[in-house]
Design brief:
It is a single chain. The N terminus is likely disordered. It contains 14 helices and 2 strands. The protein has 332 residues and is mainly alpha-helical. Helix content is 68%, strand content 1%. The protein has a two-stranded antiparallel sheet with strand order 1-2. The longest helix is centred in the middle third of the chain and has 32 residues.
Length: 332
């Protein structure tokens, strides 16, 4: 065969294989005859046990709370001597027209605001400190934080009650060692402001570990390049924190602040145990006030109305939190 014939020889054409049928029962890469299971209802089926437990644990008490708040339910109704009477909004009108109730609301808001402020400030300072200490110091601080966080509330309250005891308190003894200070026999619970300050310190002490651990995790996500760029532009430590660290931590701070407000407005065991189960008028918060109305005065309808108002106030806090998170999401 000549060279010309070799160059002009025809090469048999290769037909491209037909694309795989993606509508086949098995689809590409799947054995034929097998169908995928699940669908839109699969997640709800998996969540059904959890939702059922939440409905039983939270749903029924909330419905019962709402029902009692619109009824006259006292000791006679509790023992079955009388049927509960529907009174409409009479319980709400009674508590909303009571000056003592509004004093308790103001005291609760002030207490929660102070506790949340100190918790967030001290938590942020400790979290920033943990970024600048050596590894073994950081480990010791974390161990102390976890230990204090894991301590039961009743045990922590008993310890603080002993620390601030008028006769055997360690704090009075330590303060009396200072020149010109005599705190022996000082009763920290003789007045409402001092006593609430002690309880606030207890609440802050128990809440700071969670805030520190969460903020420390958030600080690890702050890019070091942005901090270096800010320092090169002449920003000091405060400038780096304000314009670099704080905006990145804003979603975490909003979440922690909201949770802290909800927890601190629902403080009960600290006040109850610290005052031996009978909080005086100047120590009453919304939780203890509702408890006294229901289980001390036996006005279960009035106590339920106070508890429902507290729930509504907390729902307002949640609404503010959701609004802030939506704004942060739009910005991002």
């Amino acid at each position: 065969m000549s060279a010309a014939e070799t160059t002009t020889a025809k090469v048999p054409s290769i037909r491209p294989s037909s694309p795989p049928d993606r509508t086949a029962p098995g689809g590409p890469g799947k054995p034929a005859g097998k169908k995928t299971t699940g669908g839109a209802g699969a997640p709800w089926a998996l969540l059904a046990p959890c939702l059922l437990v939440l409905l039983l644990v939270l749903g029924y008490p909330l419905v019962r709370l709402v029902t009692l708040s619109f009824q006259k339910f006292e000791q006679a109704q509790l023992w079955g001597f009388k049927e509960p009477e529907s009174v409409g909004f009479a319980n709400f009108a009674k508590i909303l027209g009571d000056g003592e109730f509004w004093a308790v609301v103001a005291r609760t808001v002030f207490f929660a605001a102070g506790a949340v402020s100190f918790t967030m400030v001290f938590g942020m300072l400790i979290a920033l400190l943990l970024q600048r200490v050596s590894g073994w110091v950081k480990a010791l601080i974390n161990i102390a934080l976890i230990a204090s966080w894991g301590m039961p509330i009743i045990v922590a309250t008993a310890i603080f009650k002993w620390l601030f005891d008028a006769d055997y308190g360690v704090l009075n003894w330590l303060l009396s060692r200072l020149p010109g200070v005599d705190m022996i026999g000082h009763n920290w619970f003789a007045s409402g402001p001092q006593g609430l300050a002690v309880i606030m310190l207890l609440v802050v002490w128990g809440a700071v570990p969670f805030v520190v651990i969460t903020l420390s995790a958030g600080l690890t996500q702050v890019p070091k390049e942005l901090e270096e760029a800010a320092r090169l532009d002449g920003a000091g430590a405060w400038g780096v924190f304000r314009y670099v660290t704080l905006p990145i931590l804003k979603p975490i701070i909003v979440m922690l602040t909201t949770l802290s407000v909800i927890w601190d407005m629902g403080v009960f065991p600290q006040v109850f145990v610290m005052r031996n189960g009978h909080p005086e008028a100047e120590f009453q918060l919304l939780t203890t006030y509702s408890y006294d109305k229901a289980f001390v005065v036996n006005d279960y309808g009035g106590g339920s109305a106070i508890a429902l108002v507290t729930v509504i106030l907390l729902l307002g806090v949640v609404a503010v939190y959701m609004r802030q998170m939506l704004k942060i999401g739009e910005v991002e």
